[in-house]
Design goal:
Elements: E1 37-43, E2 57-63, E3 70-73, E4 83-85, E5 87-90, E6 95-98, E7 100-110, E8 123-126, E9 129-130, E10 146-152, E11 159-160, E12 175-176, E13 183-186, H1 188-192, H2 196-202, E14 209-215, H3 227-231, E15 249-253, E16 262-264, E17 277-287, E18 290-294, E19 303-312, E20 318-326, E21 332-334, E22 345-347, E23 358-366, E24 375-384, E25 389-393, E26 399-402, E27 410-415, E28 425-433, E29 438-445, E30 453-457, E31 467-476, E32 488-498, E33 505-510, E34 519-521, E35 527-532, E36 547-551, E37 560-561, E38 569-572, E39 580-584, E40 592-599, E41 613-619, E42 624-625, E43 629-631, E44 640-646, E45 653-659, E46 665-670, H4 671-674, E47 680-683, E48 701-711, E49 714-715, E50 731-736
Parallel strand pairs: 26-32, 34-41
Antiparallel strand pairs: 1-2, 3-24, 4-18, 5-6, 7-8, 7-17, 8-9, 10-11, 10-13, 10-14, 12-13, 14-15, 15-16, 18-23, 19-22, 19-24, 20-21, 20-23, 25-27, 27-30, 28-29, 28-31, 31-32, 33-35, 35-39, 36-37, 36-40, 38-39, 40-41, 42-44, 43-44, 44-47, 45-46, 45-48, 48-49, 48-50
Length: 738
């Protein structure tokens, strides 16, 4: 644990099994670690699933007695997540060192009169790559009879362009070679008239290396005006003393004294100098002279307290420290009030933690002389940590709901820290159907105390969200937590809504009774259309999907739609205790045959039937009544009486007399016993059990019965039927057969 490589004898490890939060406990006091010991720890999944990584996640903390909580970095290994430029840490020396590099270069060229070599034989190989490409057909050629320059970054050792041309490389005649082009290709006018080499040097930094080499025939006798330019690169040769057409290679640095550069102008052979071939094989040594160390984000904090650091420096070192405030959007702003270069402890309590809930620290340094950076021994920030919570779902299983049923899932926000949340927490829950439809709910929940949880539930309507759905839950505390990613949960396809595909049932009654096709009804019927839906969650509350049509007498083929604006029509919305109902009172109706057609759909769009409900009925305004017929006849245990009543009024007096064949009355049945009577076809509620007035059972045999019907003191008109031949002088027969 004392080594970030986890190879020490103090290493402790364990495998924990947990649903969401695992805990590992160890007693650090038993190790007797000295003050300011840094402990490293790491975690990973022991058996990762397909969507999980098996990479270690490493962190650290430092044991310092009697120190306030906060953040600190005391070892270089604790800066793994920091932004570091220009330096690296040497574990052998225990020091920060400027990064150095070695870039091998090989330059080959020849004189204008060389008898064997041709242009393709010229090379400018840097780091194993030939930057002077001559034959691949892609990268532009370098012009002949030119002096060519390649500048190098003194820190990285890489070739670079100190200034960019007005156009891209392939259209810029000043540069050439492999893309991206790094070779400046100067003709005589570029050097003398336009001063392009001087412009190149002006844009280089002091100490940047540079290589100059010739291609083809260069008229050195004309280059006197650039002698001082060449001298500024450490080149001491008098350029006009060179023979026109001879090859040259110079390797110097900007700002070096004349004569310090490497000058290759003669290969020592007795051949004419314009026929010689030259080669430079050397290294560009790069070394950073400045650098920065910038921490990752520190915080968030409930309050800021102090900033401390310790830096070891030498005479030629320069450095500065910056404190940067990071706002809620992650934007960092330098806070000049807290910039220091020497003070070791700074009071930062005036930094507003609401404006800047997090901080970053930056250490910038430079040493151009000794090339040894100042050493950052430690830096630390004292602040109060906020509480930390994690969002969990009570279940990871699929929940099924009937369409219309409220979608409820339970969640808990667990406070795993030792501090109480002080203010309510904001919750946003979004339900996303696989079709793309969404619902969003926002509400607040109570703040959980340290080690406690706040449980809450979602509540969405499922109507129109059939199929698989996902829930996205996000909890936002008022306090700024260190980790917010664990405040968000996405339950993908864990909400299954079963679509409502059950057809509702229509029940149509006339004056409270279901009629048969062709039945007679009152001229003022009360038509009640009731739609029953088995879904207890979706209630129909409007007339969409409902159509009523009426067919009038004399036009047996045309149904006329009934508008819901008709004052004779009204509806009642469905509820938990009420079916959806339509009441239609079309009367008074004229005599004739009518038809009623009803089609209705529930709130989910399910039709009550594949075809509309349709019934025919007859209206007869004249008050009349048919004979009463016993049913069944003969009977053994009981019989009821069937008859048809027309008109709009119910008779106020009805009596049935039952007598023997000798004429003796054995039983009278009154209207009160007969029960409810309606216009149309009737069957009495009362069933005669074959007993006399005294309750004695009558013997088997034939009996006569007669019916008296009066309305408003007048005998009601008899309506003739095909069965009237069973009556003689108003008497009918019935048979008891047990």
């Amino acid at each position: 644990m004392l080594d970030p490589s986890f190879n020490t004898s103090n290493k402790r490890s364990a495998t924990e099994t947990a649903q969401v939060i695992g805990r590992f406990t160890t007693d650090l006091t038993s190790f007797n670690f000295p003050d300011s010991t840094t402990i490293y720890w790491r975690t990973r999944f022991s058996n990762p699933t397909a969507n999980e990584t098996n990479e270690w996640v490493t962190s650290s903390f430092t044991l310092i007695p009697n120190i306030a909580e906060g953040w600190g970095q005391y070892e270089a290994d604790q800066l793994d997540n920091a932004s570091i430029t220009g330096v690296s840490y040497n574990n052998l020396t225990g020091n920060w060192e400027f990064i150095q590099s070695t870039t091998p270069i090989s330059i080959s060229t020849f004189g204008a009169d060389h008898p064997t070599f041709t242009y393709p034989d010229i090379e400018a190989i840097i780091g194993g790559i030939d930057f002077l490409v001559t034959s691949n057909g892609i990268d532009p050629f370098c012009k002949q009879n030119t002096l060519n320059a390649i500048a190098f970054d003194k820190e990285s050792g890489d070739p670079y362009v100190p200034f960019q041309g007005a156009t891209i490389d392939v259209f810029n005649g000043e540069v050439c070679g492999r893309l991206p082009q790094r070779i400046y290709n100067f003709e005589e006018d570029d050097l003398i008239t336009d001063g392009r080499l001087q412009f190149l040097i002006d844009n280089m930094r002091d100490g940047d290396p540079i290589v100059l080499f010739s291609i083809g025939s260069v008229a050195y006798s004309n280059l006197g005006p650039i002698q001082s330019t060449l001298n500024s690169l450490g080149i001491g040769t008098t350029v006009t003393s060179l023979t026109d057409g001879q090859p040259v290679i110079f390797f110097g640095k900007k700002g070096d004294a004349p004569g310090t550069a490497i000058e290759i102008i003669n290969d020592g052979t007795p051949t004419p100098i314009t026929q010689q071939a030259l080669q430079l094989a050397d290294n560009v040594l790069g070394s950073f002279t400045s650098g920065t160390i910038r921490t990752s984000r520190i915080g968030p904090a409930l309050d800021w307290q102090s900033y401390s650091f310790n830096i070891s420096e030498e005479a030629n070192d320069t450095y500065s420290l910056r404190v940067l405030g990071v706002d809620q959007n992650g934007v960092a702003t330098s806070l000049p009030t807290f910039e220091r270069s020497r003070a070791e402890t700074i009071d930062i309590a005036t930094i507003d933690e609401t404006t800047y809930p997090s901080l970053e620290l930056e250490f910038a340094f430079q040493d151009d002389i000794d090339l040894t950076p100042p050493q950052l021994n430690f830096w630390q920030i004292g602040y109060s940590l906020p509480p930390e919570g994690i969002l969990q779902s009570e279940s990871a299983l699929v929940s099924s709901f009937q369409e219309g049923e409220p979608i409820q899932r339970n969640f808990l926000f667990y406070n795993l820290s030792g501090l109480d949340f002080q203010d309510s927490l904001s919750v946003e829950v979004t339900l996303i159907n696989n079709s793309g439809a969404t619902q969003t709910s926002n509400f607040n929940i109570a703040p959980p105390a340290a080690g406690d949880s706040t449980i809450f539930s979602t509540n969405f309507g499922s109507f129109g969200f059939d199929g698989l759905n996902s829930l996205v839950v996000n909890v936002t505390p008022r306090e700024n937590e260190m980790y917010s990613f664990n405040n968000r949960l996405t339950l993908t396809n864990l909400i299954d809504v079963q679509a409502d595909q059950t057809n509702p049932v229509l029940d149509v009654t006339f004056d409270g009774t279901q009629i048969l096709d062709g039945d007679i009804v009152s001229p003022n019927p009360n038509i009640l259309i009731r739609m029953r839906d088995d879904n207890p969650f979706i209630f129909k509350n409007d007339t969409s999907g409902v159509n009523l049509s009426l067919k009038l007498p004399g036009d047996e083929s045309v149904f006329q739609r009934i508008s819901f604006d008709d004052p004779k029509l009204s509806f009642t919305s469905a509820s938990e205790s009420q079916d959806f109902e339509i009441t239609y009172q079309p009367g008074p109706l004229d005599d004739g045959l009518y038809g009623l057609r009803v089609q209705a759909a529930d709130e989910a769009g399910n039709q009550a039937g594949a075809e509309p409900y349709e019934i025919n009925f007859e209206v007869i305004n004249t008050s009349s009544i048919t004979h009463f017929y016993p049913y069944p006849n003969p009977f053994s245990t009981s019989c009821q009486f069937v008859f048809t009543l027309t008109g709009s009024e119910i008779p106020d007096q009805i009596k049935i007399q039952i007598m023997t064949v000798s004429g003796r009355i054995v039983r009278e049945i009154t209207q009160d016993e007969i029960g409810t009577i309606r216009i149309g076809n009737n069957i009495t509620d009362y069933a005669w059990d074959g007993r006399d007035e005294f309750g004695d059972q009558l013997a088997n045999g034939v009996y006569f019965y007669r019916v008296f019907v009066n309305s408003n003191g007048q005998s009601l008109e008899r309506r003739a039927t095909n069965a009237d031949r069973a009556f003689k002088n108003g008497f009918g027969k019935l048979y008891i057969l047990r």
